[in-house]
Design goal:
The protein has 502 residues and is an alpha/beta fold. Helix content is 47%, strand content 9%.
Length: 502
């Protein structure tokens, strides 16, 4: 923050000193020069923009010529040495040495935004390693082996071993944005040579999480590998992964071909774990964050499955049953995700104005607003599937897949009770956000479909709460202060507010 300069005083002359018509100069002992702007004086949001353009490996390469590599073989070690035609990642390394604060921030941004992958190749034939690195189109850095071996800040270790070879031929580092190129090369090699995978073993290990959610990190670094098949052996470190996730992934990687049934079974297991974490059992309380992580991992697996194996999924064999199972599972996961997101903040919903209650810490209100808006969106997606809505706005598939890959859906695949449950969940979230008109409409629909089945009393109580909320908003409606959607807009403002460290 810039220092405040002392105001000049032109009346500092004493009685003995004649007054001058010229402005007096500032006294040397009171003058404070204005501090120069520096990185540390800038707001964090501005510093992040600087880091982005100086340290993001994709942005720093924009407009530059392609990189080509030459190589040589170290006869003493048998390791390939690569030399790039130019720096593959021309980042501003000077940021790492500016100050302790800037260095810490810059390094954190550099590693977390690029998600570096360290690839090690073991093979008796060095040409195989060279072919993979050059022909796959990877943009990689190949510093001295000792430097790479000492690295501890990267995101993922990938080790590929051919025929149990103990001869390391290459170790390189590249950003995760190039991981699909490596995977596509391996996939193509397996399709051309059917025995390719059976002669190789794969080892995967995530080293750092950078405070990202586990489902996001798995989705960026591990889930893309699921498309590969036929490895003789796969080991995946459970560190920074969800429990039981790695066993399902390693099983998928060792199967000979893609099986829709096995793919669905693996994803369903994750959905079951999400439901189990959300349920309160005699042995312990519900774990809503874990339930959210599992549900998110299912959605990621669905997306990658359709993007990489759409032809097999859309195949004629048992298509009707397959699509029904897929749509029902997606509905179940979206609904469960919305419920878990909302329930973890249920204790805050003490009165209708809790989102702007200064007695509740601002950061807590901000997180609750974000989660409730996500919950409303997720349940709305579930409702879109359960009602087979013609509008693509809330359809979860339209938001992540090309139109030609979206699976068909039918309203008949869902029961009235399931639609009632979805409407009820949506009404609960709207109540938490102070949208009592929307909530009352959702509860009314839920009651109409619920019938006399178990649990109808809770819907009636929720409907009454929504009606009471409407009554309490009556004066605000007359004055124009309360309108349909005002609660959602208020939550959006709270979610976007800049909350300083408390």
């Amino acid at each position: 923050m810039a220092s405040t300069l002392h105001k000049r005083d032109s009346m500092e002359a004493s009685v003995e000193t004649p007054l001058s018509t010229k402005p007096s100069s500032p006294r040397p002992d009171t003058y404070q020069p204005k501090k120069k702007a520096s990185l540390t004086s800038l707001p964090p949001s501005v510093r992040n923009i600087i880091y982005k353009y100086a340290l993001d490996t994709e942005l720093v390469n924009t407009g530059l010529s392609n990189v080509s590599y030459t190589h040589s073989l170290d006869n003493a070690t048998g390791i390939l040495k690569f030399k790039a035609s130019r720096s593959p990642f021309p980042i501003e390394t000077g940021l790492f040495y500016v100050s302790k604060l800037i260095s810490t921030e810059a390094l954190r941004f550099f590693y977390s935004s690029n998600l570096f992958v360290r690839l090690s190749l073991f093979t008796s034939d060095a040409r195989h390693a060279k072919t993979m690195l050059i022909d796959s189109g990877l943009l990689f850095a190949a510093p001295p082996a000792s430097t790479l071996e000492a690295s501890t800040h990267h995101a993922l270790d990938v080790t590929l071993v051919e025929k149990d070879s103990e001869k390391k031929r290459a170790t390189v580092m590249f950003p995760a944005q190039y991981l699909p190129r490596l995977i596509n090369f391996v996939r193509s090699a397996g399709e051309v040579t059917k025995s390719w995978g059976s002669t190789r073993t794969l080892h995967l290990a995530m080293l750092n999480s950078y405070s990202f959610s586990t489902s996001r990190l798995q989705g960026d670094l591990l889930e893309p590998f699921r498309v590969l098949k036929g490895f003789s052996s796969v080991t995946i470190s459970p560190t920074h992964t969800l429990p039981h996730y790695t066993s399902g992934l390693s099983s998928s990687l060792t199967t000979k071909t893609f099986s829709v049934q096995q793919w669905l079974e693996t994803i369903t297991e994750l959905a079951d774990l999400s439901d189990a974490a959300r349920s309160t059992t005699p042995s312990g309380a519900a774990n809503y964050p874990l339930s959210i992580e599992y549900a998110s991992s299912v959605i990621v697996a669905f997306t990658y499955g359709f993007l990489t194996s759409a032809e097999a999924i859309h195949g004629p064999s048992h298509a009707e049953e397959t699509f029904k199972a897929i749509q029902r599972l997606r509905w179940r996961v979206e609904l469960g995700l919305g419920i878990a997101l909302s329930l973890q903040h249920k204790a805050l919903d003490s009165h209708k104005d809790w989102l702007v209650d200064a007695a509740i810490p601002a950061r807590q209100r901000q997180q609750a607003a974000e989660d409730l808006l996500c919950a409303e969106s997720s349940i709305d997606k579930a409702l879109s599937l359960a009602t087979d809505s013609p509008s693509p706005a809330s359809n979860p598939w339209f938001l992540s897949l090309p139109v030609e890959l979206i699976p068909p859906n039918k309203a008949g695949w869902f029961s009235e009770a399931e639609r009632a449950q979805t409407w009820y969940a949506l009404g609960v979230v709207h109540c938490s956000l102070g949208e009592y008109l929307f909530a009352a409409g959702a509860f009314e629909r839920a009651l109409g479909m619920w019938g006399q089945n178990d649990g109808v009393e809770k819907v009636e109580r929720a409907f009454e709460k929504a009606r009471c909320g409407i009554e309490s908003d009556r004066e605000g409606m007359f004055k124009g202060h309360v309108q349909p959607g005002s609660g959602l807009r208020r939550a959006a403002r709270v979610a976007r507010m800049n909350v300083g460290d408390e």
